[in-house]
Structures are given as C-alpha cells and as structure tokens.
Amino acid sequence: MFAERTGYIIWVSDVKAARNLDKYGTVHYISKKMHYVVMYVNAERAEDTMKNVRKLSYVRKIERSYRNEIKTEYSKDVPDKTSFYGGIG
C-alpha cells in the first residue's frame, strides 16, 4: 500500500540551496532560523540517497530520525494518581 519511509534531519549551511533536496525525497520542513531540513525518503533506497545528499556542498551533517522506532502504544499498568493529587480539601 504505502512505501516504508525513513526520516532524516539534514543540517545545511544555505537554506535557499536546501530547497533542491526535493529531488531526493519529500521535504517535510525547512527551518530558516536553525538551518535544518526534515526530509523523508524511501527506506529501500535511503542509504544510496543519503550518500548522494552527503556530497552536496551545502550539507553539513545528516542525522537519522528515530521517530518510527518510538513506542506509540501505551498501557495503563501504573495506577492513576489524579484522584490522589486532585482535590482541594
């Protein structure tokens, strides 16, 4: 159905030139103030794509996003303490 995607945070020295990263994948966000780009690429071709991106003159550093590896399903094993702390008097 949907292709598996991998997120990358790419630190750049030139934000205007960073718009060209759209050729390599889906640019999700560009921070003009902090000079980074959040980008998603296909997981099968991620390593080859990042090798090509790393060669660009305006790319300073590339970090992989671990968002898809974070547990998002929670269980309520711990009792709720809101009734203990709630209440005025």
UniProtKB/TrEMBL annotation:
Pfam families: DUF2129 (PF09902). InterPro entries: DUF2129. The keyword Cytoplasm applies. This is YlbG family protein. It comes from the Bacteria. Keywords: Cytoplasm.
